[in-house]
Amino acid sequence: MIKIAPSILSADFSKLIDDVNTVEAAGCHMLHIDVMDGHFVPNITIGPLVVNSLKDKTKLPFDVHLMIENPDKYIPDFIKAGADIISVHSEACIHLHRTIQLIKQHGIKACVALNPATPLNVLDYVLADLDMVLIMTVNPGFGGQKLIEATLPKIKKLSTMIKDKGLDIDIQVDGGISPDNINLVTSAGANVIVAGSAIFNSPNIPYTVELMKRNGTV
Ligand code: DX5
Ligand code: ZN
Question: For binding substrate, which residues are annotated in this chain's numbering (predicted)?
Fold first, then answer.
């Protein structure tokens, strides 16, 4: 079964909790929280304070996508704020193995995110330690971009790698995904689908979530 992870980057921040409650009621599976620092990506979003303010107000697990330099410095703060899974970018981690262990030491799930141009072989010696891999289907930094189709063979290759090794690891995809193209990523092997603008800009969020589930079923 696929899981839907709405990205609050496209929510209305003046009524954030209402938007969170809407996607929870619509049957989404986790909340995708995009953290940007203006250095690793050319945009600034939110920090642990905002994450913490949502924690007691929803049952959805928090999927925190760190698009920041030096993530080790902030991982403990995001865990205290309520992260259930943390994604770090391989491109931002000098000591990727150490960073993964740091996340797991706190008893939460660890994920590594790869930009569109980053090859899968950066995962060769850490894959078995991961709960999820995030294949970026756009260059990170902004919502509302177009899915880069060159990332589709990468999803397929990762799915084969995971199966061949007999591992149980989720494949998340993020960027430019809508009810119209979700089948491209799920048929390639992705099972955790992030969507920001497609969900939050929709005039009928429950219907869009339902459509994503239906069109994404392989
Ligand atoms: C992009 C973020 C995404 C973004 C997705 O840097 O990581 O999570 O919010 O937004 P859409 O679905 O609009 O491409
Ligand atoms: Zn994201």
Answer: 7, 65, 141-144, 174-176, 196-197
58: left (phi over 0), alpha (psi -120 to 50) or beta: beta
Residues within 5 A (CB) of ion ligand 2: 34, 65, 174
Annotated binding site: 7, 32, 34, 65, 141-144, 174-176, 196-197
pTM, two decimals, is: 0.98
Model pLDDT for residues 62-117, shown as the tens digit of each residue: 999 999 999 999 999 999 999 999 999 999 999 999 999 999 999 999 999 999 99
- Binding-site residue ranges for a divalent metal cation: 32, 34, 65, 174
Amino acid at 160: T
Say how far apart CA 118 and CA 121 lie, in whole Å: 9
Ligand 1 centroid – CA 101 distance (Å): 26
Domain boundaries, the chain: 3-216
Ligand 1 geometric centre to CA of 157 (Å): 22
Q: CA 25, CA 216: separation in Å to the nearest integer?
A: 19
